[in-house]
Specification:
α1 crosses α10, α8 packs parallel to α13 and α10 runs antiparallel to α13. The relative contact order is 0.19. The protein folds into 2 domains: 164 residues, no CATH class; 185 residues, no CATH class. It starts with a helix and ends with a helix. It contains 15 helices and 10 strands. The radius of gyration is 30 Å and the shape is elongated. β2 and β3 form a beta hairpin. 53% of the residues lie in helices and 21% in strands. Strands 1, 2, 3, 4, 5, 6, 7, 8, 9 and 10 form a 10-stranded mixed beta sheet that branches. The chain has 356 residues and is an alpha+beta fold.
């Protein structure tokens, strides 16, 4: 039970992690990303006109809503510690409409509000309702914390404010670096991107959000596949070998009993199946326990590690059929090891078994 539960837990956790990265589009807000359908980045500000782009979006019936996002470097004084230098996301529009979420509280809506990343909150010992001093463009801002969020980008060393907060000291400021667009029908995202790139080919670069996420996380999956596969295979082999060894020892210890069974009419196959079914029942129980350990306990045990990466809760996407299926690989390894270990019963006569 212990062997199969450990092996099952490792296999299930590996599959869940890989599935979570490959299904990142479903949980992108929980990783700290937006959930918009299309992202447009201004590549040439000399030829770009924001008003023309806004008019284009207003005239397109496929567009549901959009927001503009800029990034600033913010400096946050930290008492006796060195000040924090963080990325500050500035939005013109709504964080909520763009798909950004928080762990607690809410996103900022007005000029005197701010949402801070998890590790910023830990470093400054701030919570919802506290005041945070932030220097942007060399000017101090005293903002109320309305929310705390997690983000793997910048390891949660970031913050969110509205464009109105910048306009307090810079009245001519307008957000114009990245536009996040939601469509009425996400299935038309690709042709919409093509239209935008064709119409503004000299000044912007438009891509689907799925393409951006794939570019980041497919590389992560590629890096993880080999080590996780090797670890899984090693655990399967070790499970098989240990169960084979333990079972072989028990067969030797009970050889006289098996000799008696054979002498009164039981076949070698009957005896071997009896032993293997016992191993099967125990390994099934271990595999089921391993599913719970792999999905619930291992992520909990890794919390201190993932916290350093800016995550309090690991956004897992669980494919139950795959998770259950991979957990039973440990059962197959256990059965194989147990069955091979009883091969000696078939090869030995009842008289020799009893003598031994």
């Amino acid at each position: 039970m212990a062997l199969t539960s450990i092996t099952s837990a490792i296999l299930v956790f590996s599959v869940v992690i890989l599935n979570s990265f490959t299904s990142i589009k479903e949980t992108s807000p929980s990783w700290g990303y937006d959930a918009s359908h299309v992202v447009v980045t201004v590549s040439n500000k000399e030829t770009f006109t924001k008003q023309q782009f806004e008019d284009f979006l207003m005239a397109d019936e496929r567009v549901k809503d959009h927001a503009w996002l800029d990034q600033f470097t913010g400096v946050l004084p930290n008492d006796s510690h060195p000040p924090l230098n963080i990325n500050v996301n500035v939005i013109e529009g709504s964080f909520d409409a763009a798909g950004y979420v928080t762990l607690s509280g809410r996103n900022p809506n007005s000029k005197n509000e701010i949402a801070i990343g998890l590790n910023v909150a830990r470093a400054l010992n701030k919570n919802i309702g506290d005041i945070v001093e932030v220097y942007l463009e060399g000017k101090p801002h005293f903002l109320i914390v309305t929310g705390i969020y997690q983000s793997i980008a910048n390891m949660s060393n970031s913050a969110r404010i509205t464009a109105d907060a910048i306009k307090v000291n810079n009245t001519t400021y307008t957000t114009s670096e990245v536009s996040m667009i939601n469509l009425l029908d996400e299935t038309v995202a690709t042709p919409f991107v093509e239209d935008v790139n064709t119409h503004f080919k000299s000044s912007v670069s438009a891509v689907t959000q799925q393409l951006l996420l794939d570019a980041v996380f497919k590389e992560v999956v590629a890096v993880l596949v080999i080590p996780l596969s090797i670890v899984g295979i090693l655990f399967i082999i070790v499970t098989c070998i240990i169960i084979f060894s333990v079972s072989r020892i028990n067969v030797r210890k009970e050889s006289s009993t098996y000799g008696i069974y054979k002498s009164i009419g039981m076949t070698s196959t009957n005896i071997r199946w009896s032993i293997t079914i016992g191993i099967f029942i125990l390994s099934i129980m271990g595999a089921l326990a391993g599913i719970i350990i792999g999905i619930k306990l291992i992520p909990l045990a890794l919390q201190s590690i993932i916290l350093d990466y800016g995550l309090l809760e690991l956004p897992l996407v669980i494919n139950w059929p795959t998770s259950i299926g991979i957990s039973f690989v440990s059962v197959i390894a256990a059965i194989f090891g147990g069955w091979i270990s009883t091969n000696v019963i078939a090869k030995t006569s009842p008289r020799i078994l009893i003598v031994e």
